Amino acid sequence: MADDTYPRTVTDMVGRTVTIEKPIERIITNNADNARIVIALGEGAKLKGSDECTIGSGCLCPMTEDKQILCEACWNGVIPTPLQDLPLTNDRYTPNLEMMASLKPDLVFLWTSWEDKADDIQERVGAPTFVAGPDYTIEGIKEHISYVGSVLGKEKEAEDLKSFVDQEVKKVTDITGKIPEDEKLTVYFAPRGAMKGFFDAKEGRDFTRTDNSYDPLTLAGGINVARDVADGNVNVGIEQIIAWNPDVIMVACTSPDDSGVDFILASPELQSITAVKEKKVYKVLYPNCRGVPHDRNLINMFYMAKLLYPDKFTHIDINTEGDAIMKKFLGIDGAFTEYSEYLQFPKTQKV
């Protein structure tokens, strides 16, 4: 009997109309953010190919900087096929169209930076492409979940996942929402770390790259000193950071190594800053990984709250919260604890 629910039409996150001709049984994703939500909504078994960072880096399941697997349960169990055995369909910039077509996908998820490639890939692979991705905001995370849920027909599961996100946020904001604004700490956040100093000419970032909006920091009770900067992701001058004079500096980190904290504390140019004088320069989780990992940014919210207001969050164990969040997205127990043991700083960094 014919399925009268097809074809059906949906709209992706950049406003493209996408027609789904038949039930979705085979999925390709070109970054870890879409793979993560496909898995979280219970459709991981349909994932038939993905990108280099999903299957060969630590953007979905934890991995060390030198590509050693952490949490084998995640790598071997997050989908029925070992994650590293999935066919590679693209690198950072280029799709392997022949490979994608050979996998005969019913749907291809593309991250938002590939919006301009979506129609061409759709035509040449012979499958609908759906552009979607989160941003640094909680609403952006939930919107991404909703859109992926809509195209997969998993609206109920999407609502459940969004409710979980709201509950996690509430655990923090029930406390930080009671802190008077004039008692909140000001924070300079370096989301690209500081391993290469003030500025890395090759990538156009490092310590002086910041963002005017990072919800996990704001929800954790921090006042982002860059909040009034016009552009979201921007490089600022050293003089501007000095003028902001933050109470705390947070530096994103992906390994047990220094991440630039020692460089910041020792820099003659920064010695007048309160955070430097009081040695309140801390490592936090890296908020990017060829996208914006939902789970690690939620964990960052808890970790930043503990760093800023340790007396108010003594009841929060970061490994317990981290494990619960990663399990909700990936279905694997203990994934964050293994990652945390590798990073070291989530449990050992002194406030």
Brief overview:
The protein is of the alpha/beta class. It has 15 helices and 13 strands.
Q: Calculate Rg over CA atoms.
A: 21 Å
Proportion of beta-strand residues: 5-15%
Strand line-up across the major sheet: 5-4-3-6-7
CATH topology of the largest domain: Rossmann fold
CATH architectural group of the largest domain: 3-Layer(aba) Sandwich
H/E order of the elements? EEEHEHHEHEHEHHEEHEEHEHHEHHHH
What characteristic shape results from the CA principal axes? globular
Total helices: the number is 15
Structural class: alpha/beta
Assign the CATH superfamily of the largest domain: Nitrogenase molybdenum iron protein domain
Count structural domains.
2
Classify the helix fraction into a percent range. 25-40%
Quickly name the level 1 CATH class of the largest domain: Alpha Beta
**What is the mean predicted local confidence, pLDDT?**
94
The count of β-strands is: 13
Secondary-structure topology with pairs:
Elements: E1 8-11, E2 17-20, E3 27-29, H1 32-40, E4 47-51, H2 52-56, H3 72-77, E5 88-90, H4 97-102, E6 107-110, H5 118-125, E7 129-131, H6 138-152, H7 155-176, E8 186-190, E9 209-211, H8 215-219, E10 223-224, E11 233-235, H9 238-244, E12 248-253, H10 261-266, H11 274-277, E13 281-285, H12 294-308, H13 318-330, H14 335-343, H15 345-348
Helix pairs in contact: 6-7, 7-12, 12-13, 13-14
Mind explaining what this structure looks like?
The chain has about 350 residues and is an alpha/beta fold. The chain contains 15 helices and 13 strands. It has helices at about 30-40, 50-55, 70-75, 95-100, 120-125, 140-150, 155-175, 215-220, 240-245, 260-265, 275, 295-310, 320-330, 335-345, 345-350; strands at about 10, 15-20, 25-30, 45-50, 90, 105-110, 130, 185-190, 210, 225, 235, 250-255, 280-285. Helix 12 (about 295-310) runs antiparallel to helix 13 and helix 13 crosses helix 14 (about 335-345). The protein is globular. The chain starts with 7 loop residues before the first strand and ends with a helix.
